[in-house]
Amino acid sequence: VMHCHRLNHEDNGLMALVNVIPAVSSYAVAVPGSPGHPAEVNVYDGNGDRLLATVTPFPGFEGTPSVAMGDVDDDGVLDLIVGAGKGYTPEVVAYSGKAKEGKGVFATELARFAAFSPDARGGISVTATQIDGRAADNIIVGSGPGIPSQVKVFATQLPSSPGTAPPLFSSFAPYQDDSSGVSVASGFVDFSSGRNSIVTAPGPGSPAQVKVFNFSLMTPLDGTPAGGAVKDKCPGPRQAAVTAAFMPFGLGYHGGLSVTTGWLTGALGGAKRIIVGQLTGPGTVKVYSSGSALQGGPKTYLESAMQQSPIVEFTEAASFEPFGGESGVSVATTSTTSGADLLVSGVSPQDKTVQVLKYQFVRPTPDAVMLQAKQLGQVVSAAGSAPDVLGGD
């Protein structure tokens, strides 16, 4: 529930953000293809990890797709969004999470379209969240390696026929003069703007700098002087503004990142956390927060409303190596009634199987400023040589 006022005293004393959790908080596990066997996507119920559906998004594609969950048709049910991987046309397909027309869940296509030129076959990254101010989630696509870095935000009006892309709401280049690809995630990661954000990371080969962007959707009033703070806070309703940039693993790490957001340790307050995992060994996973009880509260509540900056500071809140420092990882989250659990995929150092593990985070002592990861269980264990790509809500 969003309110038209953004005054600190009102938000802190009278208003609260209400996060609506769907009846089924589903998540996706992309299983890479192999010779003669196309890639599949398994969708699980976050409550109990029950398999809900298996789809084959791109017949004949034997690589690894990207996956995300989001309500793209505004029916209150999480849908599945899949992006084609390396070696395939940069195609996006969305499946309805609701049973329709006599078909089961995740069996009805809502959209299928090429997000970039057909010859851009480096593999794309997908996510979904509310960006353009409408109730449905926007499909967001990051470019793959081999073309200049670009993020496209598609409007929520879904096409009526397959092969047609939704109208383009906005596009931007998160990393100038870079063609290593873009990993994308999204969510409500800070309180300063009241908007959902897009989180990006460049692909392998480039310094792993995480950037956060949002869209104010505001236009300066007529007669307002241009430039300066006005330009920073109101760049235009369809222009992305950078609100944060940080390097979780320093300048020396160029191995690529898996990125996601989620309400980890929701009881500690604050917005969604940003979670990053190294795609190459040692596969360290780090959690970042824009403010919670660990730091005393979101900074937007600790400073004067007249001094708020459009730049958000993210602080490291947890760090661990789920696979003993020997495997790269993929990360995602799945919502619970009290926050979210973290999903991590990697290769087991013991039996070399590909596993998906589920974690929650705990505050070890009342005054601790760092969280500890506590494994809840294992969702998947299968033969393979690389982490499964994950997508959550």
Observed structural traits:
24 strands, 36% strand, mainly beta, four-stranded antiparallel β-sheet, Neuraminidase, 2 helices, 393 residues
Please, could you describe this protein's structure?
By secondary structure, this protein is mainly beta. The chain has a single domain, classed as Neuraminidase (6 Propeller). It is built from two helices and 24 strands. It has a four-stranded antiparallel beta sheet, with no helix packed on it. It is globular. The two termini are 18 Å apart.
Architecture (CATH level 2) name: 6 Propeller
Which sheet architecture does the biggest sheet show?
4 strands, antiparallel
Please state the structural category: mainly beta
On the 0 to 100 scale, the average pLDDT is: 90
Radius of gyration: 20 Å
What name does the CATH topology carry? Neuraminidase
The end-to-end span amounts to 18 Å
Strand content: 35-45%
Give a count of the beta strands, DSSP E runs of length 2 or more: 24
At the fourth CATH level, what is the homologous superfamily?
A: Kelch-type beta propeller
How many domains is the backbone divided into? Answer: 1
Q: Shape, please?
A: globular
- What's the CATH first level? Mainly Beta
Helix-strand topology string: HEEEEEEEEEEEEEEHEEEEEEEEEE
Q: How much helical structure, as a percent, in the residues?
A: under 10%
Q: What strand order characterises the main sheet?
A: 3-2-1-24
Separate helix tally: 2
Low-confidence stretches: none
